[in-house]
Amino acid sequence: MTRAGQTVPQSDERSARFRDAMASFPSGVTLVTTSDERGRWWGFTASSFCSLSADPPLALVCLAKSAQCHPVFRSASSWVVQVVPDHHAELARRFATRGADKFSHGAFRAGRDGHPVLEDACVVLECERFAAYEGGDHTILVGEVSDCRIRDASPILYFQRSFHSLEGGARRVPEPSS
Prior knowledge:
Elements: E1 2-3, E2 6-7, H1 11-23, E3 27-28, E4 30-35, E5 41-46, E6 49-54, E7 57-64, H2 70-75, E8 78-83, H3 89-95, E9 108-110, E10 116-118, E11 123-135, E12 138-150, E13 156-159, E14 162-165, E15 171-172
Antiparallel strand pairs: 1-2, 3-13, 4-5, 4-8, 6-7, 7-12, 8-11, 9-10, 11-12, 13-14, 14-15
């Protein structure tokens, strides 16, 4: 396939190159949590998160349609976005792992709406559903921020497919020993 005299990579190659390019953009790491109608806690790790509007205060997060928790978040009326502190790299990995017992470690408590809140998160944004949009293989969840708490802590960053810390300057967070 060509476009304006240039060869355009096939879909799989193009997707791989796009993922490589996005891995070269450092981003914050969040845990997004909610609870279902039975009170069961659900969550996922997201680095696709950003502010959308200051008035009203809106934030968006992107969730893969293939995620086990996708149906729960797609129908959720509220959720919590938490910026992960750098000492919780393993917790962020667990929340990104399909089938993992996500809440077995970490100090979580039930928040205002019964959703799990990481007690020592750098930032906690309690969000009410504002909108949801289709975005290819993801759903874009837009929440209106109803409450916001900030703690003085160094966040973890995701860059080049690994976690990094800003504490004492940028440094890589070591992988767990096997």
